[in-house]
Design brief:
Keywords: Nucleus. This protein has about 110 residues and is mainly alpha-helical. It contains 5 helices and no strands. About 50% of the residues lie in helices and about 0% in strands. The N and C termini lie far apart (about 80 Å).
């Protein structure tokens, strides 16, 4: 293979085409996951939501092995980190202005 000069050569347009295909793939997966997040009244897309998209849509069945590694939230019986953080954000009151910043000139 090392003697063959054609190995490793790629047409100039290939990276552009592959990049665009990857962009379109990610838009499709994340958009569907965002729909699930909206249905659950969540502001964040979690790994669990991505897993749900992969399991329900046959188009992404090639990702099933990877998605199987994501733990099931219901089986664990605990909240995910993202959900607990989003609830904490709702409870946080507005911050008080701290000391610091510019000081006014005294005339």
């Amino acid at each position: 293979m090392q003697a063959d000069e054609e190995v490793g050569k790629v047409a100039q347009q290939t990276p552009i085409a592959v990049g665009k295909a990857l962009e379109m793939f990610m838009i499709a997966v994340v958009s569907r996951s965002a729909e699930i997040a909206r249905e659950k009244n969540s502001k964040r897309v979690t790994a669990q939501m991505l897993k749900q998209v992969i399991e329900t849509d046959g188009q992404y069945d090639f990702l099933a092995d990877i998605a199987a590694k994501v733990g099931d939230e219901e089986k664990r019986g605990s909240r995910s980190k993202a959900e607990s953080e989003s609830e904490e954000e709702m409870e946080v009151e507005t911050k008080k202005k701290g000391k610091g910043g510019r000081k006014k000139k005294v005339a």
